[in-house]
Amino acid sequence: MKGPGLLAAVHWLEVVALAGLVIASLRRAEDRDGNAWSTPLDGRIVALLAVLLVASLPGRVLPPGSIELRHVVAGVSIYYTLAVLLAREPEACETAWITFPAAAVALGLHALWAATSGLEHLAAMSAQADAAWRGHHALATPLFLATLLTLGRALERGASPVWRLAALVGAIGCGLHLAASGSPFVTHSLGRLEDPLGFSTAVVIVLVLHGLGRLAWSMSRERRWEAPRWWGGMAATTFLGAGVLFRPGPPGEGLVLLAVVCGAVIVGEQSLPPAVQPIAALEPPARHRRAA
User: CA–CA separation, 268 vs 261, rounded Å?
Assistant: First the structure.
């Protein structure tokens, strides 16, 4: 797994997302539904773009560890492209969920493969990925995020064994990364919040994640038969929020892309009617009900 190759793939994905946004915009322009592009996070996203735009002005520099404007613009384009698609197609939303076990398995197996040559080799490959993706723990953090989301689906009643296997592979990979490179979170990173722009950026990102967490919480109560997946969503947004405060370096492009897909899935599903609840969960069998 070569860093430059991965970086090129991520850049191409951003280009495809931007093109998809333009095409979707042209198609949706003919739709009479004026709210087709609206999401519960629009105000927070505009605030984040405004803060980063100010930081990009000449003479202003965000503190180390902050996310770049380019990543945010690409992420926003992917978010809206996916959100519009997922809000209209239940099958597309279910397909998007597959991103998380796929990432957990791919990154988990990579960690297992690298660890066969020793934890030092895994640490070296992680450092190489950090340099290529311009991130901090650029392999471990997206693996942690993907594993949390996969675990939520794996804990659902009647979940496929594939989800459980993917969660197990991801968890093993997380353990190996922790043993090789240590925790991705450190307390001394809080010092960058003393910078006004750094503080403003962190606050707005946390507000975005808070909005996603509230949506996941509400769906865990409204769709109790799907509660584990939304618990996984809440755990994922908490993990991302902790990263904003306690990660000393930038998140890396892999984590940004997974986080955007996570946000689009949560927002897309909350706008869809819930899937049919299993009959067994609706009411007990007739033989257990009292006669009227």
Answer: 10
